[in-house]
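Quick illustration, no need to memorize.
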Amino acid sequence: MQIPADIAHAVVDPKAYSDGKRIDEAFKWLRREAPLAKVQPEGFDPFWVVTRHADILNIERQNDLFHNGDRSAVVTTIEADKKVRAMMGGSPHLVRSLVQMDNPDHFAYRRLTQAWFLPQNLRSLEARIREIAKGFIERMAAQGDRCDFARDVAFLYPLHVIMEVLGVPECDEPRMLKLTQELFGSADPDVNRSGQRVEDVDVGLANIQATVIDFMNYFNAMTEDRRRNPRNDLASVIANGAIEGQPLGHLEAMSYYIIAATAGHDTTSNTTAGAMWAMAENPDQFKKVKDNLALIPSMVEESIRWETPVKHFMRTATDDAEVAGQDIAKGDWMMLCYPSGNRDEAVFDDPYKFNVERSPNKHVSFGYGAHICLGQHLARMEMRVLWEELLPRLESIALDGEPKRTEANFVCGPKTVPIHFKMR
């Protein structure tokens, strides 16, 4: 069927994700009228929009049939794709991290650091993470009864945790935060590199490329240091890592650092800020979890579903296939819409309600199958620990202004959550 132009445009429009309501309405319409729809917004190659929970899982579990790396792993314009390929010798990727890999490379590179993120390993970090959480809560308390929870706590706490794991000194954390926001918020004039709205493809790509180069220059120096003086940190694992007896390629090593230094905190930050926003707007849910701290793990899962910081990944069909009764041709591009899957009425009761007691909660925020988020257990631990320390002290919360979201169609969440609070 013909998809209305405004619906097709909303799926790729960074402003629609910032608005929240517009993208929710677009996804709701698609789930109801055309749950697996082919669209072609102006300036884009045609692609399938996958909006139902079951179809997202079906595609995610078939890693040989639906590849990450054959085309861009995030939705991009025809013009931008051509320019990236020209820059990168034919590759559609500016970086080559786990996100852009398929097997056998994906399995081999993932295995390199996987042990660091297993629950049994993370248990040894919990005491230190709790200490870090307490420090940020004390900073929050010192501000009196008002703060911007996103900027003052949610952005900084997961950043400090992953930078300590990675081995980046605290003095460089502001730089890492700025570069992360530039990378993921390249369409947002408040956080992108130029500080203004970017309409020109060349300017937008130049901004992103400059950010990637800054990351690479930083991590090049770190690699040299860790090869001379290895430590007990993730940077040393990457710097001295080998795949089939060969050191990591330069692009792959730099990309590994970049994904750890960005996705390693930004998604957790978005979810943490989103949880505070949701509880401020739903005082009954705040009271429930405050009165029964055993609900914190459930509240964390609901906040991950509610915020869904990664909005999509793209997959490319490696052969002709059928999904949900639709014929998919070899080479077709498919957009997995995680926020839509997490609001699927067929899976979640009252999906537009923030419910800290939601059970079961089979959200797709971390993906599924071979590409499931490597850092999911660390993210859950960080959020659980923060709320375990903060909620017993937090007597009341209310919004103190209008929260705002970053304009981005790939990874985004709140960029400001002003609150008024009472803390003991």
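Residues 68 and 315 are 5 Å apart (CA to CA).
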